[in-house]
Amino acid sequence: MVVSDLDGTLLDHETYSWQAAAPALALLKQRGIPLILATSKTAAEVRGLHRELGLGALPAIVENGAGLYRPGVADGAEPGYARIRAALEALPDRLRQRFRGFGDMTAAEIAETTGLPEQGAALARRREHSEPGLWMGGDGDLRAFLQALDRQGIHARHGGRFLTLSLGRTKADGLRQVAAELSPDTVIALGDAPNDVDLLQAADIGVIVRNDHAPAIAQLPEEAVGRIRRTKKIGPEGWNDAVIGLVQELQKAGD
Ligand SMILES: [Mg+2]
C-alpha cells in the first residue's frame, strides 16, 4: 500500500499537477497496489482528484488525519465537526470571540485568507472532522482557550497561519486505520513537510519528497538505517522515481 501527501509531494508545488508521476501511478494500478491519499484537504476538496486518479472505492485520509473520505458516502455524515463547534460555542465569550474559524467565515473570507479561488474555498469550508481558524488574541488568552478546549477533548495544532482544532487524530492514525482494513504486506508513505513526519514514521518505508519551497524536514533517526529515504528530484518527479524504485526493490526481495 502506498500512502501519500498531496501538495508538494504527489502534486507539484506550483501547478498542482501529478502528471510527472503518471508512470509510477500506472505501475501501482497494474500491480493492484492501493494508493491512499493523505491530505489536509476536506473530503469535498479531494473528491475530484480521487476520481481523476481512478482510485475507485479506496478511502483517503482527509483533514490531516482527523477523518477518512469514503467514496459514495455523503458529506456531513460525521459527528466530529459538530462536536468541535459545540465546544467552541460553550466557551466564555471573551475566549470565543478571539477565534474566527472557517465555520464563522464566508467562502469569500476563506478565499481571501487562504489564497484559494472562491469555489475551492467553498469546498474547504465543508468540514467534517476539524476546524481551522485564526487566533486574534494575546498569548495569555490563547493558553486559557487551549486549556478550556482540552477539557472538552479538543486538540489544537498550529500550522502556518492557522490554529486547527480536532479530536486529536493525525495522518499516522489514518494510515493505521486504513492498513487495518486493507492488511497490506508493506506500507510505503511519502510526504514533503514536517507535518508528514508522523506519517513517514508509521510506515514500513518512508520517503521524504524534496520540496525547496517548504520548511525542511530535519534529519530523522530512521534515515540512518534506510527506513526513511529522501528523493533527489522535487514533487511528482521525485515521487515517480521513488515509487518505481521501491516497487522493483520489494518485488526482488519477494522473489
Ligand atoms: Mg505537502
From TrEMBL:
<dbReference type="GO" id="GO:0016787">
    <property type="term" value="F:hydrolase activity"/>
</dbReference>
<protein>
    <submittedName>
        <fullName>HAD-IIB family hydrolase</fullName>
    </submittedName>
</protein>
<keyword id="KW-0460">Magnesium</keyword>
<dbReference type="InterPro" id="IPR006379">
    <property type="entry name" value="HAD-SF_hydro_IIB"/>
</dbReference>
<keyword id="KW-0479">Metal-binding</keyword>
<dbReference type="InterPro" id="IPR036412">
    <property type="entry name" value="HAD-like_sf"/>
</dbReference>
<dbReference type="InterPro" id="IPR023214">
    <property type="entry name" value="HAD_sf"/>
</dbReference>
<dbReference type="InterPro" id="IPR006381">
    <property type="entry name" value="HAD-SF-IIB-MPGP"/>
</dbReference>
<keyword id="KW-0378">Hydrolase</keyword>
<dbReference type="Pfam" id="PF08282">
    <property type="entry name" value="Hydrolase_3"/>
</dbReference>
